[in-house]
Each structure stands twice: as structure tokens, then as C-alpha cells.
């Protein structure tokens, strides 16, 4: 019970504190689309990194991810959620928690480049490579941000051809 009261107090403080606007950045795209590299280049200095890839063998990874997101928002930390996040349903829990804490929600959409993702995935070390069937399954389910999700901002991210990214 004490933990629930502390969480509620932190959430209420975050809502009252206009000087501190926390952000939840949701990265959306295929495996090997550049999401983690984008995080490292653009968000690592300001956002905590949350990724199911950090717990490859854990059970209940979604539950663990949402619990970590709650913990970080309670501490008023900016968070970047670095997963494929392919569908509205996959993003629903993240956005609900972000809104509960009054966080500014930002979508970073990596439009699918099937051939590029397949090539980059094949170049990965075997331990981090995703089976092609997993990449194709994600491609079937992949949906860009939808207005019904009510992101506060949506950006489109593409490779710039020079090792970085353009953000529109």
C-alpha cells in the first residue's frame, strides 16, 4: 500500500509541476531500421532507455517494460521506448501510463524500408540478428502513428546517407 501512495504522490506532483515537463518518446519501426542508433545519437543524453531487448529471456517483458516506465516517470525522468511498437494496441499501455503522469508524448516514426532492414539485420552479429520471419511478421503489423493515439508530436525519421538521420 505504501508503494501505491508514493506512486500516486509522485504522479500528482508531476501533474502540478509545470516547470518540469517529462517526455515519453516512442520509437516505431521495423527491426534494423535505425531506432537504437537514433536513440544513441539523439536521445541518450536526455532520455532513459527502455527496451525489451534488454531482457531477451525474461518472462512477462511487456509487464516489466511498463513497470520500468512507471518507475522512471515517477522519478520525473524522460524516457525513450526503443522497440518496434508496431501497432496501436502495442503502444496503448505506454501512452496510457505517459498520460497518467502528464508526460509529453512523442512518436518517432521510421517508415519501413524492407530491403534496407533485411540487409542491416543480416549484417548484425548472430546474437543480435532477428530471424527474417520475425522481421516480416512485424512488417505485416506495422502501422505508423494514428491521430486517435493523440501523440503530442510526431516526427518522421530517415537515414541521411552520412551515418545520421533527418527528422521531419
Describe the structure.
- The protein is 42% helix and 17% strand.
- It has 168 residues and is an alpha/beta fold.
- Strands 2-3-1-4-5-6 form a six-stranded mixed sheet, with helices on both faces.
- Helix 3 packs parallel to helix 4 and helix 5 packs antiparallel against helix 6.
- The mean pLDDT is 90.
Classify the beta-strand content into a percent band. Answer: 15-25%
Strand count, sense and barrel status of the largest sheet are: 6 strands, mixed
Query: How many helices in DSSP terms?
Result: 6
The helix fraction, in percent, is: 40-55%
How much is the radius of gyration in Å?
16 Å
Total strands: the figure is: 6
**Stretches where pLDDT falls below 50 for ≥5 residues?**
none
Q: What structural class do helix, strand and pairing data support?
A: alpha/beta
Reading the helices and strands in chain order gives: HEHEHEHEHHEE
Major sheet: arrangement of strands: 2-3-1-4-5-6
| Mean pLDDT figure | 90
What is the distance, rounded to the nearest whole angstrom, between the alpha carbons of the first and last residues?
45 Å
Global morphology: globular
Amino acid at each position: 500500500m505504501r508503494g501505491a501512495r508514493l506512486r500516486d504522490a509522485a504522479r500528482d506532483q508531476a501533474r502540478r509541476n509545470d516547470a518540469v515537463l517529462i517526455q515519453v518518446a516512442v520509437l516505431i519501426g521495423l527491426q534494423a531500421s535505425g531506432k537504437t542508433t537514433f536513440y544513441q545519437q539523439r536521445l541518450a543524453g536526455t532520455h532513459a532507455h527502455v527496451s525489451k531487448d534488454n531482457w531477451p529471456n525474461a518472462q512477462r517483458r511487456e509487464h516489466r517494460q511498463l513497470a520500468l516506465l512507471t518507475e522512471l516517470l515517477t522519478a520525473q525522468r524522460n524516457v525513450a521506448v526503443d522497440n518496434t511498437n508496431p501497432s496501436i494496441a502495442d503502444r496503448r499501455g505506454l501512452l496510457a501510463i505517459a498520460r497518467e503522469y502528464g508526460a509529453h508524448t512523442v512518436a518517432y516514426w521510421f517508415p519501413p524500408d524492407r530491403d534496407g532492414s533485411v540487409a542491416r539485420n543480416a549484417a548484425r552479429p548472430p546474437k543480435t540478428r532477428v530471424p527474417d520471419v520475425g522481421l516480416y511478421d512485424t512488417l505485416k503489423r506495422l502501422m505508423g502513428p494514428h491521430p486517435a493515439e493523440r501523440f503530442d508530436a510526431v516526427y518522421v525519421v530517415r537515414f541521411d546517407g552520412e551515418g545520421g538521420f533527418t527528422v521531419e
